[in-house]
Amino acid sequence: MKRYRQICALVIAIFLLGAILQGCARATGVREYHKDIFALNTWVNIRIYAGKNGPDILDKAIKRIEEIENRMSVTIQGSDVSRINSNAGKQPVKVHDDTFAVIKKALEYAEKSNGAFDITIYPIVKLWGITSEHPRVPTESEIQDKLELVDYRNVVIDEEEKTVYLKEPGMGIDLGAIAKGYAADEVARILKKEGVVHALINMGGNVVVMGGKPNGQPWRIGVQDPRAEGARRHIAVIEVMDGSVVSSGDYERYIVDVYKKTGKRYHHIFDPSTGYPANSGLMATTVVAPYSIDADALSTTVFIMGAERGLEIVEEMEGVDALAITLDKKIYTSKGLKGKLIVTDKEYELQQ
Ligand code: AMP
Ligand code: MG
């Protein structure tokens, strides 16, 4: 009887709490607003819970993303990155604080990963053109030629002057593996400043969540099936209240070699030690971290380094976790994710 009364009280309490929360939302006029745009070469979706000024807040966030894109895009003429590249071997280029901060962070990850993560990979990226209109498999000698230009130690940054200099003519940088993370962090910063508590920012698999869902539950972020053709489906779920979850993989942008009929998949993440698409036995990685710039850089890094060495780097970092999915559908995780990752697809085997 006592237990029955306890259950009744609990049910009533939950009901009342729900009613109060709903009432609060109505009283404060807080509701969901969202916006989708194409920026930084991907679909960006921002969902916030805010009052009447929700649309204005979203506009501010979008403006900031566009600002970052205009500074960091390698294809936009006059961007900081374009200017750095066209002045390679000539002179240092003064850049905006945004660009400087991202390049500095990228060089830290290059050091940390012993050059697996290397933004000077651009000559190789351009040679293969995986994300361009005319992708192709280059010849071995072309690859070796361009590979000579890849070395993050030839990027000279001047903290005082805020300049960046590429020592060799023909060198180039590409911030595609880290700029989205920076942009997502900046959006989160703006949303917080504007008083937004609950939000979800998704930049093509680069996710940042804030404050859990409005009902107090954590946000549930799906880990995409790297082999689902066409329709999107997830193979696992990660629950997060605050922070970033970023994925990288061979499924995001790739070409299949139909020319030589090998059926081989050539994707967009390159191993700077070979000049070929990274071939570490993985098809996807996901990193969970407090900041998206770290999660972004690391998801690419772990993908290149492979499950064992990649997860080692992650373990050394406070508050950062990762999972790595092998080509034979095994999922390896860092210690912090053990018992927390919810695998939803039986074909994928969680390694304990
Ligand atoms: P992400 O989707 O964050 O894993 O980044 C992939 C993008 O990073 C590619 O499209 C390239 O522009 C760039 N990239 C490719 N290989 C590397 C590398 N080894 N280090 C840094 N950036 C890379
Ligand atoms: Mg990345």
Q: What report would you give on this structure?
A:
The protein has a domain at 71-166: ApbE-like superfamily (T-fold, Orthogonal Bundle). It is 35% helix and 24% strand. It is built from nine helices and 17 strands. The strands form four sheets. It has a nine-stranded mixed sheet with strand order 1-2-6-7-10-13-14-15-17, with helices on one face. Strands 3-5-4 form a three-stranded antiparallel sheet, with helices on one face. Helix 8 (292-305) runs antiparallel to helix 9 (307-315). The site of adenosine monophosphate has 19 residues, from helix 8.
Ends: how far apart? 43 Å
Shape: globular
The CATH H-level superfamily of the domain at 71-166 is ApbE-like superfamily
**Count of separate DSSP helical elements:** 9
> Proportion of β residues?
15-25%
Q: Structural class, judged by helices and strands?
A: alpha+beta
Q: What small-molecule ligands were found?
A: adenosine monophosphate, magnesium ion
Please count the beta strands (DSSP E, at least 2 residues each): 17
Compute the average pLDDT: 91
Radius of gyration: 22 Å
Give the % helix.
25-40%
Question: Mind telling me which CATH architecture of the domain at 71-166 this is?
Answer: Orthogonal Bundle
Task: Summarize the main sheet.
Answer: 9 strands, mixed
Looking across the biggest beta sheet, what order are the strands in?
1-2-6-7-10-13-14-15-17
Order of helices and strands: HEEHHEHHHEEHEEEEEEEEHHEEEE
* CATH topology heading of the domain at 71-166: T-fold
Top CATH class of the domain at 71-166? Mainly Alpha
List the uncertain runs: none
